[in-house]
Design brief:
The protein has 247 residues and is an alpha/beta fold. Helices cover 35% and strands 14% of the residues. 40% of the residues are buried.
Length: 247
């Protein structure tokens, strides 16, 4: 930092950081990069899972043709571990809303530092939650924060209260379920989606679909397939955290 200014507190000590309010996406993402577990090298070019050199990815979704997989690739800010896992849980299940701002900055910081992955993106949308989700709509909170933290409106994020992709009915959650149950929940989730903007906006577009965590990829797959069936030409994914694949 500049002489005379304090150093950032470091993730996950963001709530007591001198830059909690005045920090930028780049400052916070660079700071968090010192403590977050990075995506491994080498990793699967489709789902960002660590792979042994010369070995294929073990995730079954990655072996599918893109037309059946739905998304072309999914990138991750970091690995789902340690403090990042804890703070995602704090937001998602405890309603610790302050973490939405930090996660929004991490997403925008990733976008700023990966221009090649943002090239040609027409819409950045969150994988939506239903309005009655408790304790809060965590994805919408993160996306609203990302819009605010993108000071120059460099990226095609929806303003708060005007999300392009919404979920119209509640469906069963997939957390801690079997793979078959996750697939069933993902199918129901995708069936509950609606594109609120001009339908012409989605035709032939490239969409960056944002979520908090990527595990098996079933939900992103079904949402991506829904978006492509609605007219999108390409669906890419971006998640805060990639869960290490175990089977």
């Amino acid at each position: 930092m500049t002489a005379g200014l304090p150093d950032p507190a470091g993730f996950p000590d963001c709530p007591v950081c001198a830059y909690r309010i005045t920090g930028t996406a780049r400052l916070c993402s660079d700071c968090a990069g010192h403590t977050l577990q990075p995506v491994a090298e080498p990793h699967c070019p489709v789902c960002s899972q660590a792979v042994a050199p010369g070995r294929p990815c073990g995730n079954r979704v990655c072996a599918l043709p893109e037309a059946e997989r739905g998304f072309s690739r999914v990138d991750a800010v970091a690995v789902y571990s340690g403090a990042l896992r804890n703070k995602i849980h704090r937001l998602k299940y405890d309603g610790a809303y302050g973490w939405a701002m930090i996660f929004g900055r991490l997403l925008v910081g990733w976008m700023e530092s990966h221009p090649e992955q943002m090239e040609g993106v027409d819409h950045v949308v969150g994988n939506p939650t239903h309005a009655d989700r408790q304790p809060l709509q965590h994805i919408e909170a993160i996306m609203d924060a990302a819009y605010t933290e993108d000071f120059t409106h460099t990226f095609p994020l929806s303003p708060p209260g005007a999300h392009r992709l919404i979920k119209t009915t509640e469906t069963l959650r997939s957390a801690n379920k079997s793979l078959d149950d996750k697939r069933a929940a993902a199918t129901a989730h995708a069936a509950a989606l609606t594109w609120t903007g001009d339908t012409g906006d989605i035709k032939g577009s490239t969409i960056l679909l944002v979520d908090d965590v990527f595990t098996s990829g079933s939900q992103l797959q079904h949402v991506a397939l829904w978006l492509r069936a609605s007219g999108a030409a390409d669906v890419r994914g971006l998640v805060l955290a990639r869960v290490p694949w175990s089977g």
